[in-house]
Amino acid sequence: MIRLIFFTCIVFALALSIDVPLYQSLPPTPHLPNGGRQGRYITSDGSRLWYRMYPGQPNRPLITFLHGGYTNSNYWGLQITALRGHFPILAIDSRGHGRSVDNTSNPITYSIMADDVVSILDHLGHNRTHIVGWSDGGIIGLDIAMRYPLYLHGLFCFGCSYSYENVNVTIMSSPTFLKCMPRVQEEYSHLNPQPQNWKEFKDKMESLWSKLPSWNEKDLKDIPDKNEGKEIWVVDGAEEEAINLSTPKEMSEWIDGSKLVILPGVSHFAFMQSPAAFTRVLKQYLFAKESSIDSLRS
Ligand SMILES: *[C@@H]1O[C@H](CO)[C@@H](O)[C@H](O)[C@H]1NC(C)=O
Ligand SMILES: *[C@@H]1O[C@H](CO)[C@@H](O)[C@H](O)[C@H]1NC(C)=O
Ligand SMILES: *[C@@H]1O[C@H](CO)[C@@H](O)[C@H](O)[C@H]1NC(C)=O
Ligand SMILES: *[C@@H]1O[C@H](CO)[C@@H](O)[C@H](O)[C@H]1NC(C)=O
């Protein structure tokens, strides 16, 4: 009898784990498609930044994909796979992250990472890009929108925030983040050329998140936009667990001319949880100003 109850409990537990809602799931980390050309850009402080460039149709604008904190470009693999060949695509591992090594004497800040992106664009001869940024990647995009507006066609800011105070206090007990933390550490150990830097890297990121970003309403209202017709979309999952649920709406109200899109049933990891729906919205963003492009619509 006891045995039967025990067995029933196991079956019940299994059923529960299979039944987790989409927004609490963390699907496997995607892979970047093969091809393209990878390189390492050495910054003035000796950091070695990894990037991969995929060619696209020459008349189409460059799309730069920026990943979230602790992670790497692979997380954008499904969207890059869907868009490659059509648009030129640049994927960058931020300093200290993924395959990129930073100068360990220097801190990691959003403005330093934004400078890195602009240096790589200059190095590759691109003077303008769309930025598709997730979380920290979106924050880097906001920094570029503020300090280097001429480099931007537009910004697709997914799961981003304007202040370290926007972080939801329950983030570290959410089912997705509990699964994500060991995963990112494991990925770092085989992607990063200096895996022994993990502890130092983690300390730097915690220090970053304890005080940055620290923008306010005025900073977002001051984002130069109009004259350049920049497209800025603030996008998030309705079940966002990392950022205060009120943050995306605040941001889109403050950023002049921006559009707010909330994706139902998904969280901070929407592009992995519901990749097709996410990519559809991303295409709508890309085509918002490109009415002549029809082949990818659907
Ligand atoms: C790292 O940065 C420090 C200054 O912050 C600089 O003195 C040092 O030369 C840099 N290291 C490399 C390898 O460039
Ligand atoms: C940007 O690059 C395009 C082509 O790559 C060129 O036509 C344009 O003049 C450049 N703009 C600036 C400001 O350098
Ligand atoms: C975030 O939400 C918490 C309540 O959970 C609130 O105390 C805090 O003021 C919010 N912060 C921001 C900047 O939205
Ligand atoms: C924080 O996240 C939890 C779980 O997703 C949610 O229930 C709560 O409303 C969020 N808090 C804020 C202030 O957005």
**DSSP summary, beta strand count:** 8
Question: Approximately how much beta-strand content do the residues carry?
Answer: 15-25%
Share of helical residues: 25-40%
The CATH H-level superfamily is Alpha/Beta hydrolase fold, catalytic domain
* Number of helical elements: 10
Task: Provide a descriptive summary of the structure in words.
The chain has 298 residues and is of the alpha/beta class. It has a single domain (36-286), classed as Rossmann fold, CATH 3.40.50. The protein is built from ten helices and eight strands. Strands 1-2-4-3-5-6-7-8 form an eight-stranded mixed sheet, with helices on both faces. Strand 7 (231-237), helix 8 and strand 8 (259-263) form a beta-alpha-beta unit. The protein is globular and about 45 Å long. Mean pLDDT is 92; it is low at 4-16 and 291-298. Bound molecules: 2-acetamido-2-deoxy-beta-D-glucopyranose (4 copies). One 2-acetamido-2-deoxy-beta-D-glucopyranose binds at residues 163, 165-166, 169, 244, 246-247.
Summary tags:
alpha/beta; 8-stranded mixed sheet; globular; binds 2-acetamido-2-deoxy-beta-D-glucopyranose
Layout: helices, strands, pairs:
Blueprint: H1 2-18, E1 37-42, E2 48-54, E3 63-66, H2 77-83, E4 89-92, H3 110-124, E5 129-134, H4 136-147, E6 152-158, H5 175-191, H6 198-211, H7 217-221, E7 231-237, H8 247-254, E8 259-263, H9 270-273, H10 275-287
Parallel strand pairs: 3-4, 3-5, 5-6, 6-7, 7-8
Antiparallel strand pairs: 1-2, 2-4
Bound molecules: 2-acetamido-2-deoxy-beta-D-glucopyranose (4 copies).
One 2-acetamido-2-deoxy-beta-D-glucopyranose binds next to loops.
